[in-house]
């Protein structure tokens, strides 16, 4: 273990360009593992090569070591061979050893192994050379440690039984200790066993099952998604398919060249290379983090293939929409294409776990806002059916971040749509300068990154516009407010009075809005029909997602506090605020409004619930962040000519901002001068209060498959459903954690007992 880890660190220091992401690091670790398996003396092995459950790939000459490891860890054979070649060169340089073809070496270590593609170093891990070789690598690792960089050797500090080489004495008294370290190293398959071991269950092979599901870890998750990218996406053609080319050429003008040119420019902006930095480009990332050219080219290729694949699927789906008879508006929309490219690139980065470019870096590189990206996420998932569950969860996490706060930040394009759909909030949007700036054109990206794409002129042409989308609202925070106000006034002349222009936040209309409506300029009329603008459609869809997310969080929080009967009221107050006091959300987090709604309902209904208790329970929620209730924006103040944002805690925000704005909605929950406990009817509705909207029917948490051979899924059971399930007539059919059908033993035994009962009843039938 000690030797292998230092060998990996040595390889990493010699070829840093190969270790830009987690997937590459895993390939490096597996390459080191393969070298250890070949070189560990046979007498120290605690496993056998032939018949091992982890080395299952065979050839006529014996175990195919590389193929077996690739099968176990979902690695690419091509990448693994490259890593092993780099490892061999590092060993030759560090230890002054010559690599020999393993097929020419006669040693017990290589028995039962197909040696055709392997190299061998005599004396690499022999007992006599072990300590000196380890010392060499330790010194090399120490000398390569950069200031402010993590010391990766610390990963071994808890292994007290593996001493550092410099502490190993050469005399005979410590020979046993050295041998202990050597023997620990000599069992590399312990690593494999530990990574693949899962807790025993009734369906596992150890208990009579036939198939075992490997427990999902961050490593296995990364390698599973990397396998999907390698096998499904990388095998696709580099250019658009013939069907996609046909769709693009059938538009009012042939858009094929424009689409392919855009992909090259935008992906070069997302994956800046060292060559771009050398040409003097102003990289979106720090120049020190510019990607290695080979690595960046591979990622750009993967992202472009994924983009073309999803673009074709979306075009096919749009043509099936009865409201779409021409793809030109969609395929000529600059913002739509950039969002689709950015989403593809984000999934590639997420697959490789590229930590130096975490979200929202992909937005900064493309000139998009988070609200722009939120328009494409759902469609992306719907039209890429092979997308692994881990990547779907990643996109869901991004969408959640956007809905809860990112879309409400200053400079979000949400405000460019909101100012059209809700003219009543225009003054607040302009006063705080919340509007998004115009999206940079492709020429701007080329100039900023100093991009040189083959086939494009070195000097950007001014003829290329930002797009014909374009969400091309001319408003910008840098422009005088009177320009925006005049636009809003002009728009107001065509809108009903304020009382009539409040959007009714009900479920979306049955008609399916095409994507071109979502990405069209906010002031354009909706092509589906009616008097609504495209901004109305966009805001309606976005607000419906906000309400669904809020409903989930309100239910979870009320359930945790054990005030489930107030869930609907809290939800309705939140809903009315979103509809009629939308400005409360500007520059804020939706959880701040949820917490205030919950406390406000508790106060009005005279419940014994303090803000402290609400916050204590909120801290247990997965999405909780301290800044949500400790630092809430309430405006700016002028200090010596400089505008300084003012932030307060949630109680101050509740008293100073929330109550004045939300008081009418809270008071309407009860009739004037009455107590809820005196006036409640059988349904729990307070007489005289507005009719409450029904609480959304939310699904339980996503079920998890627990059997590889049967369609058996398990979903966490909510406390509110437990009592209903455990009725006298059905109690014997269910077992909850800590609650059995007889004296509690364990979940496994209780489930086995239930299965036997059900099987017995089936046999009787």
TrEMBL record:
Gene3D superfamilies tied to this protein: Cyclin-like (1.10.472.10)
Localization (cell): Nucleus
A single GO cellular-component term on record: nucleus
Chain ranges of the Retinoblastoma-associated protein A-box domain: 217-418
Region Disordered, annotated ranges: 456-493, 674-697
Role description: Regulator of biological processes that recruits a histone deacetylase to control gene transcription. May play a role in the entry into mitosis, negatively regulating the cell proliferation. Formation of stable complexes with geminiviridae replication-associated proteins may create a cellular environment which favors viral DNA replication.
InterPro entries (UniProt xref): Cyclin-like_sf (IPR036915), RB_A (IPR002720), RB_B (IPR002719), RB_fam (IPR028309), RB_N (IPR024599)
Keywords associated with the record: Cell cycle, Nucleus, Repressor, Transcription, Transcription regulation
Upper classification of the organism: Eukaryota, Viridiplantae, Streptophyta, Embryophyta, Tracheophyta
Protein origin, superkingdom: Eukaryota
Main location as per UniProt: nucleus
Native source organism of the sequence: Zea mays (Maize)
Protein name: Retinoblastoma-related protein 2
Residue stretches of biased makeup (Basic and acidic residues): 466-482
GO biological process: regulation of DNA endoreduplication; regulation of transcription by RNA polymerase II
Compositionally skewed regions (Polar residues) per UniProt: 483-493
The family this protein is said to belong to: Belongs to the retinoblastoma protein (RB) family.
